[in-house]
Amino acid sequence: MREYIGRALGYLNPIHLVGDRQATIDTIEPGSIMVSPRKPIDRFDVAAITEVLDLATKIGAVLLDSGTAATDTQRQIEFVAGVYGLEDVDVDVTYNTIVVSARRGATLPPITTMEQVYYRSMDFTRLAEIDRLVRRIRDMALTPSTAHRLVDEIITAPHPYPHWVATSAWGLMAGGISVLLGGGLLGAVLAFVSTVAVILVNRRLNRIGTPVFFQQFTGGVIAVVPAAITFGLSERFDFDLSPSFVIAAGIVVLLSGLSLVGSVQDAITGAPITGVARFFELLLMTGGLIAGVGIAIQLFEHVGIYLPTITPGTTFPAVELPSRIFAGAVAALAYALASYAEKRALPVAFVGGAIGAAVVAVATFTSIGDVVANGIAAALVGFLGGLMARRALTPPLVVAVAGITPLLPGLAVYRGLYGILNEQTVDGFTWITSALAIGCALAAGVTLGEFVARSLRRPQLPVRPAWMAMLRRNRVHGRFPVGDRRRQVMAQRPRPSR
C-alpha cells in the first residue's frame, strides 16, 4: 500500500504529468505523428488486404466494447490499417457494428469487413493490452499474422484477478460511496453486503442469458432489501440508520457499468447516431433499475416498513471533509479493481477519485450548485487523469471512468423515485432531471478535460546561458574555476586499481 501511495504522489509531479510518454490515442491524433513508411499492399492482393482489415476491426471491437468513444475507435482502426499500407479506407463505427472498407481504385471493387461487438464483462486490462499492442504495431513493425495471434490471446485471456476479488471490490466501492454520501459504518457494511449479493445474483443471471434490463431490475430490488429490513429493526432496537445512503450506493454500483461517458462523448465529438443509441440503452437500463427499487419500496410499505422521508439536501460539517474525500478515492480505486484494471492503474484511479470527491465536497459549502460542481470535478479528473495516464501508460478512459464513478447521481435518482412514489411528483421529477443533468455534466466535463490533456505538450525549458554551458564543459574536462578547490583535489586523487 505504501508503494502505491508513493507512486501516486510521484504522478503528481508537474514534470512527470506533462512528460513525453503520451497515451496511445493521443499520438494518433490527426497530424500529430507521421506513420512509419512501409511498402503499400498491392491492390490486387485480396488476401493481404483482408488480413489487415480483419485485424483492424478486431482491435476496434475491443475498444468499442470497453466504452471507447466511436471517434477514437475510428481513428485507431484507420491508424492500424495505415501502418500496414492501407491508407484509403472508410471506417463506419455504430452502436454495435464496425464496418471497414478498403478502396482499390476506380476499376476494382472495394474490400469490406464487418465485426459485431458483443457484450463482455468490463476488463480494463484487456483495454490496456490492446492499447500497448497498437504501440507495438507502430514501433516494432509486427507482421499482421503476429498481431492477429496477439489479439486472439488478449481476447481469450482470463481475467487477471479471481472473481472473488472483483466481487469484494464492488462491495468495497459501495461502502466507500455510502460513506461519501454521509452514511456511517453500519451503512457501509450494509452497502457492502447488498452489493456483493447483487453482483453474485446478476453474474448467475448473465450466465443463463438473462437480458440486462432484468438484471438491473433484480439488482434494484436486492439493493433495497438489506437497508429496509435493517431500518425496520432499527426502530425496534433503537439504533440509527439512513437507508437512503445504502440504497443510493447500490444504485451507483449498478449505474457504473453503463456507458455514460461514451454516450455523451460520442454525441459531442461527431458520432450522434452511436451516442443516441448508447444513451437510449443507458435510459433503458436505468429504467429497469428504477423499476426494481420502486417495486421493492412498495412491497416493504405493504408489510409495514416505511422508509424515512427524503430531505431536500445533504449537508455535513467541515470536519468530515477528509474522510469523505478518502472514501471517494477508495471507491474509485475499488471500481478500477472490480473492472480488472492493472495494478499500475490503481494509484492513478485513487488520485482521480480523490480529486473529484474533493471538488464536489468543497462545493457543498458554496452556492455554485451540484451540476456545475460535478462538471468542474469531472473536467479536472479528465484533465489530470489524461496526464497521469501518460506516466502509468494506462488508457485515459480507465482513469476518467474510475474517477467520476463515485460522483454518479445515485442519491438524486433515489430521491426522485421516492418522491414519485409518495405523491410528490413535482419534487420527484425535479430530482430525476437533476440526476440526468449531473450525469451529462460528468460526461461532458471528462470529455473537455481529456481534450485539454491531449493538446498539452511537455513545456520547453529555456536554453542554458553561455556561461553555464562553459562551466559544465570545464567541469567535464577537469578545468575548474579558481575557488573550487575541493573538486580540484578530488580530480587529482589517484583512482584505486581494480
Descriptive keywords:
498 residues; 3-stranded antiparallel β-sheet; mainly alpha
Q: Helix content range of the residues, please? A: 55-70%
Topology as H/E string?
HHHHHEEEHHHHHHHHHHHHHHHH
Uncertain runs are: 14-20, 30-36, 458-464, 480-491
Taken together, the total number of domains comes to 2
Give me the count of strands.
3
Name the strands of the widest sheet in spatial order.
1-2-3
Query: What is the residue-mean pLDDT, rounded to a whole number?
Result: 78
Number of helices: 21
Q: Which sheet architecture does the biggest sheet show?
A: 3 strands, antiparallel
Can you walk me through this structure?
This protein has 498 residues and is mainly α. The protein has two domains: 35-156, no CATH class; 163-455, no CATH class. Helices cover 67% and strands 3% of the residues. A three-stranded antiparallel beta sheet has the order 1-2-3, covered by helices on one side. Residues 14-20, 30-36, 458-464 and 480-491 have low confidence and may be disordered. The chain crosses the membrane at residues 170-201, 213-233, 245-264, 276-301, 321-338, 345-365, 371-389, 396-417, 429-453. Residues 326-451 form the Threonine/Serine exporter ThrE domain. Its main location: membrane.
